[in-house]
Amino acid sequence: MSEDTNVEAEGTVGTELTPRQIITAMSGLVVAMLLAQLDNMIVAPALPTIVGDLGGLNHLSWVVTGYILASAVATPIWGKLGDLFGHKYTFMIAIVLFLIGSALCGLSQNMNQLIMFRAFQGIGAGGLMVGIMSVVGMLVPPRERGKYIGVMMAVMPVAMIGGPLVGGFITDHVSWRWNFYVNLPLGVVALAVIWSTLHLSTETKHRGKIIIDWWGAAVLTVWIVSLVLAITWGGTQYPWGSPQIITLFSVAAVFFVTFLVIESRAAEPIIGLHLFSSSNFRLATVMGFIAGFAMFGTITFLPQFQQFVQGKSATNSGLLLMPMMLALMTTSLGGGQFISRTGRYKVFPIVGTALLGIGLYLFSTMGVGTTTFTSALFMIVMGLGLGCLMQTTNLIAQNSVALKDLGAGTGTFTFVRTLGGSIGVAILGTIYTHQLTGALASQLGSAPKLGGSVQSLTPQRLKGEPASFISAFRHAVVAGTHSIFLTAAVLIIVGFVVSWFVREVPLRGSKPEAPVAAVEELAV
User: Fold this and answer.
1) DSSP letters of 15-51?
2) H-helix or E-strand containing 480?
């Protein structure tokens, strides 16, 4: 049996501040949200050019995977550090590391450097989202959170629409390196605003000696890196049954079990296993994992189809993502307001996983003749599904933990969602590369060499190739995207089934005179 409990720790959240004070305190978070979102959206349209310029089609997924993997490992650590030392200062340190990583990415001279610096950038990025959501959790109770998330969502159109547009324009007319340099001035603004406006009077105070679970963090890193390496290299760098891949999977399994043992005994675990005693928290993390898998996979590989098959520039490729982003934003805003008014949220993960699965399946049907209008309709379905899932699953997870565990709970949830993205990009990247090269071999009658022209092929260079090669390459890209989107669609079925088991536990309210609700339920 497990228990879903709404328990507040030391004081109440969000009751000591007026709405105006909360909005003022959240202003820095809005800038940080813009920083985090812009990086994801700006880089995506530039990936085909970056990979072609630095020469590394077989490393395409690692440009994203390295970033996501480091972010995944760092996320629960940032969340726990926030609980121990205060969310404001750990949040600001994360921003500084993110900016250093951004500058280094722009200076990269080869794919290995870019992947390494993206990983460093990901360490800082892991603290951005968990920091934002933890601070929001400190300022605003779950029942009222939808209203204030609307304030943060006001910046989302800028990032979601402006990001791909700016990223594509910079790639086409300046240099892809400036897609990373643009983070620097924005990050300085975020630091200045957070320092001057964010004052967390409701932060819980850690009493006694501060203990950091360094062993847990180290073991966590080993098992995640081993797992992702095995998935990424299996079937491409090495055969699945090779000693290298078997060893990596074995190391991942051993260190995963070791991690569980360490966390069960640690005084201040990085990931508190007690968090999973809540059935809703478990279900939210599963859905978060699946949403991350689908979202990062789509954003990473959809520009490949748009630029290589539909012949769009990086700028237009960014603009073509607008339907998905607008649909996501609209659903998130409307859903937040609905939840704040009614306190009901179970319908959103159910509808979200259904729409997400349908959208991914529709993507898998795209071919060389698919028009931009048709793909835009598919993106709307995808965006509506993600909008129903992203905010709601995080809300369910936060509502299932006590205030003293808010950072750890938010970090754990974000970690699982980011891990889903990391594993998703690794798996889908392996499938994409395998299908693309296999289809090219079938079309051309001989296997293309990844060390040759295919590896350094950019959308611009493709236009200069013979017509027969262009046709073969476009069909090969279609074969790759068909496989990855269909794979993701099948996984979403699991999320749809899981969503029906979510229990609609009442959300904590904001009225100071009301007693703290403690709702207990037994899981079936």
Assistant:
1) SSS-HHHHHHHHHHHHHHHHHHHHHHHHHHHHHHHHH
2) helix 467-499
Q: What is the DSSP letter of 503?
A: -
Residue 146 near residue 116, CB atoms below 8 Å: no
Residue closest to 334 by CA, chosen among 315, 323, 321, 347: 347
Output the six-digit token pair for 393.
């699953």
Backbone angles phi, psi at 31, to 5 degrees: -65, -40
Q: How far from 294 is each of 43, 197, 350, 431, CA to CA, in Å?
A: 18, 36, 16, 14
SS3 278: coil
β-bridge mates for residue 3, sequence order: 522
Rounded Cα–Cα distance for residues 324 and 59 (Å)? 27
- Rounded to an integer, what is the distance from CA 35 to the centroid of its chain? 14
Give me the chain's average pLDDT, please: 77
Neighbours of 200 (CB within 10 A): 16
- The CA-atom distances, in angstroms, between 458 and each of 49, 213, 308, 454 are 5, 45, 8, 9
Residue in 359, 73, 322 with CA at minimum distance from that of residue 221: 73
What span, in angstroms and rounded, lies between the C-alpha atoms of 386 and 207? 39
SS3 sequence, 175-213?
CCCHHHHCHHHHHHHHHHHHHHHCCCCCCCCCCCCCCCC
In whole angstroms, what is the distance from residue 99 CA to residue 79 CA?
A: 19
| Residue 412 identity (one-letter amino acid) | T
8 Å CB contact between 281 and 397? yes
Geometric angle at alpha carbon 519, from 515 and 520, rounded to 5°: 145
pLDDT in tens, 400-440: 877 777 777 777 887 888 788 778 877 888 888 888 888 88
Q: What is the pLDDT of residues 90-124, one digit of tens each?
A: 888 999 999 999 899 888 888 788 888 988 998 88
Q: Where are the alpha helices (DSSP H) in 234-272?
A: 243-265
**Among the ranges given (56-70, 194-208, 241-255, 321-335), the one the predictor scored with the smallest mean pLDDT:** 194-208
Can you state the angle between helices 372-399 and 279-304, rounded to 10 degrees?
160
Which residue type does 461 have? Answer: R
For residue 444, CA distances in Å to 37, 92, 470, 480 come to: 40, 53, 11, 16
Q: Which long-range contacts (CB under 8 A, 24 or more apart) does 197-201 make?
A: 197/24, 197/25, 197/27, 197/28, 198/25, 198/28, 198/29, 198/88, 198/135, 199/25, 199/88, 200/25, 200/86, 200/87, 200/88, 200/135, 200/138, 200/139, 201/16, 201/17
Say whether pLDDT at 451 is over 50: no
d(CA 293, CA 249): 20
Q: Both tokens of residue 448?
A: 């293309």
Please tell me the distance from the alpha carbon of residue 147 to that of residue 138, in angstroms, as a whole number.
Answer: 15
CB 40 within 8 A of CB 234: no
